[in-house]
Structures are given as C-alpha cells and as structure tokens.
Design a protein that fits this description.
transcription; eleven-stranded mixed sheet; HTH-type_LysR_regulators; single chain; alpha/beta; Arc Repressor Mutant, subunit A; WH-like_DNA-bd_sf; D-Maltodextrin-Binding Protein, domain 2; two-stranded antiparallel ribbon; 12 helices; transcription regulation; 319 residues; LysR family transcriptional regulator; 2 domains
Length: 319
C-alpha cells in the first residue's frame, strides 16, 4: 500500500474545509485533480472518506477516525523530516583533515580561519600524523582529504601537488657560527645532524638525496616532534635538517639561524583525495583554501617555497 504524504495532506486539508474548490485553491491545484487524488486515496484504503452531495461534503465515520490518525502520522513525518534536515545541516558543517604535522602547523590555521568566516559554526577535526597514516585515514573514510608530501600509489587516490618546499639547516650557539648561510650536501657529512624519525617523509627525502650521491645519510639524532628538535638545537646538541614549512614555527625563536642547502632535496606538498565520490561543500572550500594558502606562501617565501612542478602533477616518490 502506497500512501504518499501529499495525499494525506490533501485529505486533512479537505477534512477541515469540507469544500473541494477552497481546498484546491489552498493547495494550488485544480478541483478535478483534488477529486481524483481523494478517490485514489479511498480506493487505496478501501474505505469511503467523504459523503458527497450536490450541496455539502461531510466526513464519513471512518473518515473522521482516519483524519485523527493522519494528523498524528503527518506530525511524526514532519518532525522526523526536520530531525533529518537538522542532522544533514550538522553533517554539512563537519570536516575532517589528515595532515603531516608540519603542514598542519604551516597551512591549516589560515585555512580553518577562512572556514570559520565562511560557515556557521563549522566542526573541524585535524589528524596530524605520518604520511602513511594520512593515507590510511583517507582510505577508511575517516577524513575528507589529506595533506601529504608523498604521492600515494593506491589506485583509489588522487594526488594534486600544491607547492614544493626546500630543505634547510637550523643551527644555534657555536654551530651557528660554523655554518655558512649557503651550504651543500657534501658540507653536511661532518655535522651532528638532527632529523625526524625513519617514519617521516623528511627522512626519506634526505636519505634519497644522499643515496643519489652514493652516500649514506646517518644523522646523529632522530626525533618525532619538531618542537623537541628545536629544543635540542637551542641547546647546541646539533644541527637540524628540516623542510622549510616544518621549520617555520621556530623562526620566532631567538638565536636560531636558517641556512640554505643549495643542492638539497625539494619536498612535494599536495592534497590527496579519493577518486570516487564528490566532496562536501565545506571540504571543497577547504581544499580551495589550501591552494590559496599555498599561493600566498609561495609569494611570501619565494626563496624557500616553490611552485608545483606541473599543474596537478604527481610526485615520483611512492608510499
């Protein structure tokens, strides 16, 4: 049995007015269309709902009982529809992003500030984690998109390069006096280097750069957190090797010097999305904001942050 809500609304409107012409006008339909809809409803129910004469329209006893039930059904339907719409509106304001910590720090604050202005009370979750963890969260539908520095080889994912950033040296104290503003990879061999752990893409980029020169990259220390690296550098325990975006939060620390690695690696930074499906409106806005922030970073830090190798290009490194 198929009872569309619209037919029940027609029935209730007519049960209150008991006038076909007035009800048809109220519902913006013709009187013959309303009469047919009521007849269809009566046939579906197997029950006469109205007693019609040339002078009046009255509810049958069964019609009176069903009118009371129809009001309850329509009321529950409208309440359920409103709950569903409210839930959909809340879902539309939710956004989850997986990002490398250095990208979360260097790019996402500006992105989220823009979303706060664009959407009413957006609910944003940021998962700052390793490149592989970002990819896994995206594959398991835990996030809307990811910010990563290595293009995934998974066939279900797409990588759009947004920018590239150069690797730099960060020194302090006695090491600051020993390092020139411009260094080369060969100059790094005798330095007490501090870098991220093997799980990081930063370590992978540096290892690949050294291997291309027939050398092994063997840092003095490997740490998980950039803030911890800054503390060790400030204490004079070594020289940090980091991508420029990873180093940016430490620029305000006194006594630190940034040195260029002239022939050092260049890290790809991009947006990873699922190939199938359409992102939500807020996710599309967030990705557009990431691109805009990338353009701004390239303009303000042109010596360190470079344009993509090619539009929508994919990095040659694979996870």
């Amino acid at each position: 049995m198929n009872l569309p809500p619209r037919h029940l609304r027609m029935f209730l409107a007519l049960s209150e007015s008991l006038n076909f012409s007035k009800t048809a006008e109220q519902l913006f339909m013709t009187q013959p269309s309303l009469s047919k809809a009521i007849r269809d409803l009566e046939e579906t129910l197997g029950l006469p709902l109205f007693e019609r004469t040339t002078r009046s329209v009255q509810l049958t006893p069964g019609g009176k009982r069903l009118a009371a039930m129809a009001r309850t059904v329509i009321g529950e339907y409208d309440a359920g529809l409103q709950r569903m719409l409210s839930s959909a509106e809340e879902e539309a304001r939710q956004l989850a992003i997986a990002s490398l910590p250095s990208l979360a720090t260097g790019m996402l604050p500006a992105v989220c500030a823009g979303l706060e202005r664009r959407f009413a009370a957006p609910q944003i979750t940021i998962h700052d984690c390793s490149n592989n963890a970002c990819v896994q969260r995206l594959l398991h539908y835990q996030v809307d998109f990811a910010l990563a520095s290595v293009a995934p080889s998974h066939p279900e994912l797409h990588y759009e390069e947004v920018l590239r950033d150069r690797f730099v040296l960060l020194s302090c104290g006695p090491w600051r006096r020993r390092l020139a503003p411009r260094m080369r990879l060969d100059d790094l061999a005798g330095l007490p280097l501090i870098t991220m752990t093997d799980a990081s893409t930063a370590m992978r980029y540096m290892s690949a750069a050294f291997l291309q020169r027939g050398m092994e990259f063997r840092p003095k220390m490997q740490l998980d957190q950039v803030g911890t690296i800054a503390g060790f550098v400030k204490s004079g325990l070594g020289v940090a090797v980091l991508p420029y975006l990873g180093m940016m939060p430490m620029q305000s620390l006194r006594g630190l010097q940034v040195s260029e690695i002239a022939d050092g690696p260049v890290r790809s930074v991009g947006i990873v999305t699922r190939r199938l499906g359409t992102p939500t409106t807020i996710a599309q806005e967030a990705m557009a904001a990431v691109r805009a922030v990338g353009m701004d970073l390239m303009a303000r830090h042109s010596d360190w942050i470079l344009a993509p190798a090619a539009p929508a290009g994919e990095s040659s490194l694979q996870t």
